[in-house]
Amino acid sequence: xxxxxxxxxxxxxxxxxxxxxxxxxxxxxxxxxxxxxxxxxxxxxxxxxxxxxxxxxxxxxxxxxxxxxxxxxxxxxxxxxxxxxxxxxxxxxxxxxxxxxxxxxxxxxxxxxxxxxxxxxxxxxxxxxxxxxxxxxxxxxxxxxxxxxxxxxxxxxxxxxxxxxxxxxxxxxxxxxxxxxxxxxxxxxxxxxxxxxxxxxxxxxxxxxxxxxxxxxxxxxxxxxxxxxxxxxxxxxxxxxxxxxxxxxxxxxxxxxxxxxx
Length: 262
Known about the structure:
Blueprint: E1 6-10, H1 15-26, E2 30-34, H2 38-47, E3 54-56, H3 67-78, E4 83-86, E5 92-93, H4 101-129, E6 132-137, H5 150-169, E7 175-182, E8 185-186, H6 189-192, E9 194-195, H7 206-209, E10 212-213, H8 214-226, E11 231-234, H9 240-247, H10 249-256
Parallel strand pairs: 1-2, 1-4, 2-3, 4-6, 5-9, 6-7, 7-11, 8-10
């Protein structure tokens, strides 16, 4: 299904984005690697099964004024943008009381406004080619709030509202949307998470260390894309909290308050 398709992977320098790029490239896709740090993207590119079928396009989710030109360049060079894996973002480790509004706004700017601005830059080309699939990487924190993640959870809740609306609006244009909600995944996302002062958390949390292997996470994600699922929860037993909240809300709040924040 992915052979010779053009897949633009945001956040490809590490974690789920890096593994997505690796598995898509192995499956025969032409992969566009994007993130802020070009040196890390070069290392990822060198590790691919077919590095010659990839391209590095540095991108900062804060610099949204460049998105339309970047998307245009990719489309003109490759003739299509079949998949957009909108995976870039930043997490949080700080209590709401201590976190400045500047940090709140930064997280929202990257995780929400940067994310949807990139989608809007790609949509005209997907409409032009009459097809496309957008994969929006949310989080289990997009289903309920949690300790130390007030702004992060808010940004992911906002993503859900946007992409659920988008999948309805673009269905007639043959543009598909899959919203992914990963739980505890073994990546280093906690190290770059912003604390209440806006600085890197710098620690590997226990929840990440003991989480689902990133390879398995991406395998499940790509299966959901193939099946054109509108949403998917990915993780181990922590994802059951979503169903407990839905059907047994009182029980949910008793359970969740005793969970470790890290």
